[in-house]
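Input:
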Amino acid sequence: MDKISIGLLGLGTVGGGVYQLLQRDNEAINRRLGAELVVEKILVSDLKKARNHEIDKSLLTADPKDVIDNEEIDIVVELIGGTKVAKELVEAALKKGKSVVTANKELIANHGSEIFDLAESAGVEIDFEASVAGGIPIIGPLKDSLVGNKIVKIMGIVNGTTNYILSKMSEGDEYDHVLAEAQELGYAERDPSADVSGDDAGAKIAILSSIAFNSRVTPKEVYTEGITSVSLNDIMYAYELGYAIKLVALAKKRGDELDVRVHPTMISLDHPLAKVDDVYNAIFVVGDAVGELMFFGKGAGDMPTASAVVGDIFKVAGNLKKEKKCYSTCTCFNSFNVKPIDEVESNFYILMEVLDRPGVLAKIAKILGEEGVSLGSVIQKQSSGNLAELVFMTHLVREGNLRSALSKVSDLEDVDRVCNVIRVETGEDG
Amino acid sequence: MDKISIGLLGLGTVGGGVYQLLQRDNEAINRRLGAELVVEKILVSDLKKARNHEIDKSLLTADPKDVIDNEEIDIVVELIGGTKVAKELVEAALKKGKSVVTANKELIANHGSEIFDLAESAGVEIDFEASVAGGIPIIGPLKDSLVGNKIVKIMGIVNGTTNYILSKMSEGDEYDHVLAEAQELGYAERDPSADVSGDDAGAKIAILSSIAFNSRVTPKEVYTEGITSVSLNDIMYAYELGYAIKLVALAKKRGDELDVRVHPTMISLDHPLAKVDDVYNAIFVVGDAVGELMFFGKGAGDMPTASAVVGDIFKVAGNLKKEKKCYSTCTCFNSFNVKPIDEVESNFYILMEVLDRPGVLAKIAKILGEEGVSLGSVIQKQSSGNLAELVFMTHLVREGNLRSALSKVSDLEDVDRVCNVIRVETGEDG
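Output:
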């Protein structure tokens, strides 16, 4: 099989995640590309540093030339961060005719224009899905899937640290205490200023608005206000008035002008963004054809970000391959069985009407137990006349067992009828 | 400029929407493709039927051959629906070497395998983003952006009619009454059986699970239970136990078996899907690298569906174009100004502490009024000692005006301090 060779710049948490994802069995990628993605070289700053993951040591190098000048390498993946070394190496790679994938929001937000010009004149591609909102697909959908729309508005919760802090404050905790807790949990940096000032969100909305409105917006053009001035009092009054306070990165088109800013924003409690809590991110997009959309997920972390990087590598690799045939539409190369419903394990809610007399519950529970139906909770309520309603919540049980137990329960004289059985998605089964 | 020619099969609500979107100025599409998308022919069943939109009559034909056998046409867009005529025409188009875009879930769910084989042997592409969840980008992200993940689970609210009914029932309305109301509003068909039986959702989860697990799943393999047995009583007990009842289309991989089904499901009120109400759709995806994602939006309707169709046309057209250079990475061909923050209009929340004595509110309101700051609501509360807290919610006001008004208000002897000013996103400004 053909191979497409990858050079990684950086092997920190995200770099390690990308390496892991590329090392494992990737049948879907290989079949659809008609080629294998192979990590050829990895630039690290310290060859001797202990690594979390098992890494083939022969791949490591401390010399950028081993990646940039390497004729074997088709795609360079930049995961160093910042705008100094990263910028030099990305530019060098593009000039050498290599396509680039990066997760670097500062680089794209501040120097996107030069970098894209360079890519275009070199006839190569640069992709950067991971630079905004980690693993959430947003740049691809905005650029491609929604290309038929005029984008009206983007409202993003694109900084997990501040969303965590505001969420916890809305439960009554003071800023300083929540920040300390977030730092302990690894949700906030030791120096949280880039997050709490809104600068991180500012770089991200600069990227998103550039794409949405086809017009370059740089971070210094984005009005930015952080969350440090938000008090518990504000949050309480907001709630009383029907609003949640979120750090929103906002972009709208108004005539031939753009309105792009980041600041604490009161959002109606009914709005989908108001319900996005903790470290989650979400981007709410309004297009003139599609209406309201929201993309929700984890906006940071090694593996979510690595997921976005690998998606971009796949995209670039597909464009590098000449033979379009490999891009076959059908991706069903497995043939798994679909389980018959009787063999599926679920948690169940069961509502039944029974005669309101002593011992009924015990009889039912006995039958359920004999059939392997284990109960989580039971509610009993007086219904009409001499009937009572029983509500059972079961632990995980094979559907076939439940059906057979319920058929026996229905036969009891004391049981008027089983009114309904509803599956409960508890996540208990993963 | 080059052109890429489109043949539309069908000019119903979605077809009309696609035609409209392709007719208007599409600079982003044209520049990025280096080609224009041109509608060449439209197959209709009745040439004389009155149309909602202005249509160039010379494009219309009642003869399928004018599209299928038309050498000019590069991409055939099937918007007829069903699996009879639509299937014949899609197959004929693929055999003629034309790429196909379709919104037809029955066709893809039931005959995907044959159709994809045909496309592959003809060396063309078939795309079908609009077949699941209307305008929400889900098939593209699942196939491409998330290709580095092993998909663990998909849980979708993919039928707007039943979600509307269950949402309204959770407010205490009986099924029959809500259904009648939904029919009046156009949210439910005269014959709602495909929706309320779960069959519509079944076809959609067959498509999504085929993609997620790279293994063909057909609708008849999907266990399906509708919402007609869900009672107000069930919804009330569920709520009491901390759950919402939703019609969930679910797919999980368990070892080498798939668990794919559609049924009313109790979901924890904390789960993002529990908050998806009315006709909205949402697809919750868990990938082993990316973690939890959710894609939310309108799952039906002419323009949302047309948005997805145009996104697919763009994708196919990009693959048809040989010169990769046109796919330049930079999409910033406009140069809009970003508004200075002083010129931005917002609604504001203002919290201030004032001396608790008569006439203060009047003085403040007078200054605000003079500066053009119009008030929505005011809350006044006793604070500590001789201070009171005032909370104002303004109507839309230019930020510069507000700043100047607040500076004058701060100068008042009666005003201790303006504690905070937070922008409110009411949607009042669109």
